[in-house]
Each structure stands twice: as C-alpha cells, then as structure tokens.
Amino acid sequence: MTCPEMIRISINNKIVEIKYNSSISDLLKLAGYPQNVAVFVNNKQLMMKDYLTYSIKDTDHITVFRPLGGG
After folding, report:
1. Residue 1 counted as domain residue
2. Integer Cα distance of 61 and 54 in angstroms
3. What per-residue confidence (pLDDT) applies to 50?
4. What pLDDT, on the 0 to 100 scale, is given for residue 45?
C-alpha cells in the first residue's frame, strides 16, 4: 500500500514508488540514469527541456532509453 506522499509508477516495466510531485529529473537521479536519455511517458516522448517541469502522475508508464554509442 502506498502512503499519501508517494505515488506508484512504472519505469521500464518495473513498478516503483516515488514522492508525489516528483519530476522526470528527480526520477532519473533516483534511478541512477543520466539526464541525457530519451524518456517516454505513456508512449509519448518528452522533450529534455521538460524533464525538470513535468510532474509525474500516479500510474504513469515511463520508458527510459540510454543513448547508444558507436560509429
């Protein structure tokens, strides 16, 4: 059961609990991801400029893709 200050979301198909009103940047830091990743919220890509301002909602499905290097 979640406490009132926490919400439950899915990140890369794993259910996690985070603080209410957390941003994508907060989530990336908590999960150990760098800020230069591609983030999709409910199958829609979020712009990097919105990582600080997007307030994660309860039951959001978030997918994070790390950039691939190569050449």
Report:
1. no
2. 13
3. 97
4. 96
The predicted pLDDT at position 70 comes to 61
Three-state secondary structure call for residue 27? helix
CATH code of 46's domain: 3.10.20.30
- Measure the CA–CA gap between 56 and 36, rounded to whole angstroms: 18
Span 33-67, pLDDT tens digits: 998 999 999 999 999 999 999 999 988 999 999 87
Rounded CA-CA distance 24/18 in Å is 11
The domain total for the chain is 1
If residue 24 lies in a helix (H) or strand (E), which one and from where to where?
A: helix 24-31
Residue 31 resides in a domain: yes
Tell me which residue range forms the domain holding 49.
6-65
